[in-house]
Amino acid sequence: MAGIQIGEVVSLLFMAIALGMDAFSVSLGIGMQKIRLKRIAFIGIVIGIFHVIMPFIGIVLGQAISSSIGSLTTLLGGLLLVGIGSQMVFSAFNHEVPQVIKTTGIGLLFFAISVSIDSFSVGLGLGLSGVKIALVLILFGAASTILTWLGMIIGRKVRGLLGVYSEILGGSILFAFGLYIIFG
């Protein structure tokens, strides 16, 4: 009995890390902007909260919504990242274009939704499997928070090395990850 519970925890932990990797990847690009450590900490917490809210909603609605909506939400999340990444690359060449990615207010909410939307899809599936909801939510939230912090801190260090090219690299990372979500 204990082996089954440990196995379930390990499986959910790997799933939480896999879902948090998109937050890590996107955070690399975001971290290349001039962001203070205090703000990085706050952003990581917000991402973690959304990685709790989205799968919870998915789990609750898992039996009520068909699986076809899961692929639609993933597609929309990927398209959002492609658009944000494209804008970052273009704004690196045209300094008159305002930044789309803002780590405050509504921009932070869009960012959090875009990296946690796949957690909603996973939550739909988990809602049908009868998994321990509290365990899932704690693991998903903690993994995404930690991976977001790690990505932003690494991105911040890389920015110092790359200078003006960091925005192009950051936008390229977001664009590529969006394409991966759409076609991967």
UniProtKB/TrEMBL annotation:
Keywords on record: Cell membrane, Ion transport, Manganese, Membrane, Transmembrane, Transmembrane helix, Transport
Location relative to the cell: Cell membrane
TM regions (residue ranges): 12-30, 42-65, 71-93, 105-127, 133-154, 161-183
MF-aspect GO terms: manganese ion transmembrane transporter activity
Membrane topology: Multi-pass membrane protein
GO cellular component: plasma membrane
Similarity comment: family membership: Belongs to the MntP (TC 9.B.29) family.
Function as written in the Swiss-Prot or TrEMBL entry: Probably functions as a manganese efflux pump.
Name of the protein in question: Putative manganese efflux pump MntP
